[in-house]
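Key idea: predict the complex, not the pieces.
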Amino acid sequence: MNIRRFPLTREISLFVLAYLYLPVFVLIAYSFNANRTATVWTHASLDWYVRILNNPSIRAATWNSLVLAISAATAATVIALLAALATRRAFPGRNASETILRLPLILPEIVVAVATLILFVAVGIELGLGAMILAHTVFCIPFAYLPIRARLDGMSGTYEEAAQDLYANRFRTFRRVTMPLLWPGVLAGFTLAFVTSLDDFLTSFFLSGPGTTTLPVYIFSAIRAGITPEINAISTVMLVISILLVSLSFALTRLRR
Amino acid sequence: MAETNTVTIRGVSKAFGRGDAAVRVLHDVSVDIARQEFFTLLGPSGCGKTTLLRLVAGFEIADSGSIRIEGQDVTHAPPFRRPVNTVFQNYALFPHLTVEQNVAFSLEEQRLPRDQIRQRVGEALEMVRMQTYARRRPSDLSGGQQQRVALARALAPRPKLLLLDEPLSALDLKLRKEMQIELKQLQAEAGITFLFVTHDQEEALALSDRVAVMQGGRILQMGPPREIYEAPTHRFVADFIGDINLLDGEATGGGVRVAGGQTLPVQVSRPGPVTLAIRPERARLVAAGTGVMDATLVHSAYLGTATLHKLQLASGGDFLIRQSDPVQAAPEKGSRVGIALPTDALQVLQE
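Result:
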């Protein structure tokens, strides 16, 4: 049965697409609006972009967000890679280990954020960028783990047997065969983790110290003073960073094939 | 003392799983493979042939017994320390490397000088006539071409022993026949011992110097193709390889009495029920009443080089006769005919 034959398939699809993306397009469009009020269009301008570029607290928040996302995504990807390799073979407690790895996906973030805050305060970890990197790493692990694991599951073990058969020891096999074949999964995992960290508000909000505001936290506090086109511009910048990164990882994956 | 065998397998057993769930896939298997021999493990899937190959390659370690290659004990050695290379069933060419890089892989691992690597890769690709594809990726190649590259990759380090795990099973019939001939030539040229695994009896007979027929983790019979085909010792071997007629009989002092027929002068060591086997091309169609027993002709199929007659015995069983004399006219369908069984073509089988 061809799904295209159903009546209204096209109409429903268009509606769903509009429902998903119209708000984003409106936001992008209004970030180029000259008017002070965020919802009244006058004429096109780049004023708001110039303004956020010249705003030191936005620049600092952007920097913090990038440092945080890169550090957390890198740490999470390394841990996820090791975990994926470790859970490839059967061992007692393997199912439990996998569940624990995926658990941060379903735990309510607010609970984890509050718990982390209490723990950090209790053991005396200073709030700020370091605390945020630690916490972000934890909830980024499953996002990095899933694509790597999927890639590993789809990869036949025969390649590694072939490498060993051709005189590569275990380390050489990993370097010359496993890792290159796993690379697209690792890249996808890193990208997902990066975007997840970049987007995070709750955990950052609880754990940010003085001077370590991230972009989402900045947007939240700015919005309490009213929605300005500045917010639209910052949001657009975040969107562009995310899209650029995803495109880059996609291009790299294609290039290596 | 000079070692004359490339491979010596002694009393090897292997089970997968643990405790009650353990499945024994090999039972006390012993095999000697001579230098430059084309040796084939033949059997249905699950008979243990691939496991035995994997034990020799080092991908699995035997529970008991020993494996020696060129006199060196490799029972517990990892694959990268064995002078053995494998052609995998699905080739397992590295998809991220070019044909050339695939073939160079083992040579680089052996730290050969660069110019020597280049020369050996060239030779290996030339041997399988794939020089012009050196810069391609495996995904750009057809099945037959990938097969050739897999062979070149396995032969490049000049192993003492080449393991081939059903390497032709992914190819279509015509290509498979071509590759069979190439494989045989390659083996003769390279002078390497081949351990070949297949479930295709025709392939096994056509290629091998010796065949081991396996079932249920044991070797039932081992010998040259002609012996396996013409003198099977087990009912399973007889049945697995080619068409065969099996007749139940009773061994007596003077020979074997066939159910519903005469007593045939076949020597059997001890009296009791036995099975007689005869190939369809060795039995003859004769006039009713002049053979060992009579039967009804059910169907005759003209095959070009021969005619295959299907008969029904008085006991209800089928009997096949392959008649290659084209002059002789086939009897009418449904007519009574006789079956002649030359004594020298009869095989007495163990169960």
